[in-house]
Amino acid sequence: MIGLELTKGLARAIVSSRPEDSAEAMHEAKKGLLDFTAASFAGRHDGGIQKLLQLIETEGGEPIVPLIGQGKKASPLQAALLNGFMAHALDFDDVHSDVRGHPSAVILPALISSAAARREDDRFFGAYILGVEVMARLGESIGSRHYEKGWHNTGTLGAIAAACAAGYAENLSEEELEKAIGFAASQSAGMRVQFGTEMKPLHAGLAAQSGLFAVKLAQAGFGGSNAALDGELGFFSLYGDLEKAEKVLLREWGTSWRIVHPGLWFKVYPFCSAAHHAADAILKLIDEHGVRAGNTERIEVVFPPEGDAALTERRPATGEEGRFSVEYVIALALNGQELTADRFTHKPIPSSIRDVLPRIHRVYDAGIRPAPEAVPKGRFTIVRAFLTDGRVCEARVDCPRGAPGNELSEKEIREKLKLALYADERKADHLLFAIEQIGIQQFLSQL
Asked: MmgE/PrpD N-terminal domain: from which residue to which, for each copy (predicted)?
């Protein structure tokens, strides 16, 4: 694939795809929707939602699309924004290692709005599979420098992925999809400086809204470039690595689906996935060696270089900031606190936790060989505890719980949904049945 053909090639690949023909991909898509639903209901009481609801109600609009867990509806674009925010509010939603971000919190809100507005859903799961595919390929193509420079991939890549997914769902022509990709690329944004604030999950909502709006612009015949990904002024040159994208973006399209291999990572903890390795490791040390705040002089957390790039907070002031702090996660565990959503709110961190933070130190070691099964590839975390009795104990995690290779069972994802619904078995069963047996319209009626 050369220069000015990336946009055209991507649109052509999407329009000609039939991901619904893959039983394995469809199975994984239903699991993804189930986990998305659990993460969204878990986040439905976040304080930012009420602020967004006030803005939506002030703006007005035709109430068509359900707002998850709110008992209200909004216009398609408004709903995409709010449902995207809600899914990502607790950082409890899935991630994908190729994306280096959160695909479902962007793609599914756009598709929910599309399906509710049109009352059609025959291409819903296929569109979801393709959205994950596009977002993963964009993540692989953009290069690591994009994230390291400060961009938030969920926002910057998500808008294009949502446009591609919604475009497939709504049967856009190849030319219309080329335009939609360009409209979404022009709206791509999101900075990691916003991690630990309400703006971070809003990146997901904005990307979902932008992707859906891009499709609407294309359907309206709005004018724009058919080659927005291409050349020295295009998306990949501006945001990342055009040369790599030309080699990677469309390579072996359709031979397997990224929602299957490597697959989505369904979280067991409501905080940044970059801290999940350390969470598993410290819990192992607590269980096997009796490590506690009271008997620990020092904790070292060993990463490969840049392995903690997403963990922007070393001395968080609130639980919300603590979602992006490995120090806070470890301090909670050392104090016997469960790693549950109520520990990661806007409330100030108590002194009992705050006093432990200075004892936890990050270390970087480029000489340690990553494990072949590491998720993400090349990553690991070692937690090393120096105890007051002179002992030194450590635990290493390369593939944390929930990640592909150490994935959650369907039963565990179901339990995650039931927990998010405060053990409302009837509600959970209705949602599960709609996802697995009936269809998306029935699913929407349960939101």
From this structure: 10-241
